[in-house]
Automatic annotation (TrEMBL):
Segments forming a coiled coil: none
The organism of origin for this protein: Panagrolaimus superbus
Protein name per its UniProtKB record: Chaperone DnaJ C-terminal domain-containing protein
Lineage, top ranks: Eukaryota, Metazoa, Ecdysozoa, Nematoda, Chromadorea
Xref: SUPFAM superfamilies: HSP40/DnaJ peptide-binding domain
Gene3D superfamilies associated with the record: Urease metallochaperone UreE, N-terminal domain (2.60.260.20)
Cellular component GO terms held in the UniProt record: cytosol
Amino acid sequence: MPGRVPADIAFVIKDKSHPKFKREGADIRYVHKLTLKQALCGTAIDVPTLDGANQRLQIDTVIKPNSTRRLAGQGLPNPKLGNKRGDLIVEFDVKFPDSLSPECKQLIQNALP
């Protein structure tokens, strides 16, 4: 427009939070709660994916608190890498019991090194 100085326009884009996933670049993080029994003895869990399906994840090893597993290619599209997708990172939140009975404590002491 005549008489006006051209200026830059700045856009600020904020990601909308998701109830199940947290974005980390092209990767997404999902936190799954496990009981102490599941973490020590193993279990199978259903992990939700972006397309609304569930992917079965078999856990056969001891899971330590805050440990993770990666589901390759189940994250967001990465335009820098063509048609490749990021990963879905499953983080485990191990829930410990608030208390144990004396009998339970004795069983654990006898079972663990």
